[in-house]
């Protein structure tokens, strides 16, 4: 055991001796309790021959600290809930892993330095030279619905996307020749490429706003000694982390720079002028994915100047943006048959607060209910335009 580890265990031991009078805690010296997802390859898996990068890394970290590992498995598709039920209830000491980005709010949690960069990646036949976004022009590109690459491509003229909910389905469409390329979450795409497709595709990381993230280990707020120990282990294990990333097929190499999403969405608001062939591509996208029903920019009949003035946004631009980006979940013009997604009831639901509720919901999403987060993806102008459009569909 390292000196640092001994000190940490001493401190924890002392804390436990006091805490035990109030409530028994499970802090045993020499044991590092790790929370991770039982079924989330390539990151973690509770059993089987492949345990995932996080599990292998957590084992190495614990070994370096002279600890043995105990796992507490919890499904993490709802990450905030997983945190509340595990780390924050002292069911484990460290959670592998959370986005390091301070904008990713995790109350009660303290994070180590980032130990791994991840990004979306272009998946394409090895022979295709794709060095820029423009090289995807005219190709049919699979994307995950609502993802940053989806929004980027949907908001620029000349790109044809097919959207999928699952990485796996997008990779299958590529294998069947239904699309020419895909932009998917790099680690998952790389891992699938390795395990299911015998590295048939070239998987190239991309960079750009909203396209990448860094992962860190989370511990409870105030657990400074443990955070410092894990930090040091992560630094020492740097070469091993890279080797694990290779083992699981995570894409590496020089990223292809994609234009930032907000630049892309601004160009959507450019005053028309699209040429014929670009429009054809938009049309074919509409037909293939079936989720964008209108490609015209005419305003709804009841679009009132007053509504537009209220947020200073451009309702027509907002409508076009909405129908390109949000309509596959909310239906064209927000008229979803599913009540919770029908955006014509905002005013009747929230009265004078509706704009505020809508803006907050768009920014932060409702991850528990399936509404994605758009913060950092949409510009303030996009949001203002959308709010102006939403005003036009509230019954008078
Ligand atoms: C992946 C599907 C999906 C996408 C894409 C999506 N939403 Fe949503 N949205 C939902 C769901 C589901 C709800 C309902 C959440 C709930 O029941 O609390 C919702 C709720 C909302 C609400 C609050 C409705 C209310 O009555 O409380 C607003 C406003 C909204 N979405 C706007 C948007 C906008 C604008 C976009 C595009 C930028 C968008 N959504 C894209 C799934 C989506």
Gyration radius, rounded: 24 Å
Please report which band the strand proportion falls in: under 5%, 5-15%, 15-25%, 25-35%, 35-45% or over 45%: 15-25%
CATH architecture annotation of the largest domain: 3-Layer(aba) Sandwich
Order of helices and strands: HEEEHEHEEEEHEHEHEEHHEHHHHHHHH
Oligomer: single chain
- Tell me roughly what share of residues is in helical segments: 40-55%
Under the CATH scheme, which class of the largest domain? Alpha Beta
**How many helices does DSSP assign?**
16
Bound molecules: heme C
- The CATH superfamily of the largest domain turns out to be Periplasmic binding protein-like II
Q: Provide the CATH topology of the largest domain.
A: D-Maltodextrin-Binding Protein, domain 2
Protein structure class? alpha/beta
Number of domains: 3
Outline: globular
Indicate the low-confidence ranges by residue numbers: 1-27, 261-309
Q: How many β-strand stretches?
A: 13
Distance between the termini: 71 Å
Major sheet size, sense and barrel closure: 11 strands, mixed
Fold blueprint:
Elements: H1 3-22, E1 31-36, E2 39-40, E3 44-45, H2 53-64, E4 68-73, H3 79-85, E5 94-99, E6 109-111, E7 116-125, E8 140-144, H4 148-154, E9 160-164, H5 167-175, E10 181-185, H6 186-196, E11 201-207, E12 212-220, H7 224-236, H8 238-247, E13 256-257, H9 261-268, H10 276-289, H11 305-311, H12 315-325, H13 327-330, H14 346-350, H15 354-364, H16 380-392
Parallel strand pairs: 1-4, 1-5, 8-9, 8-10, 11-13
Antiparallel strand pairs: 2-3, 5-12, 6-12, 7-10, 7-11, 7-12
Helix pairs in contact: 4-9, 11-16, 12-16
This protein binds heme C.
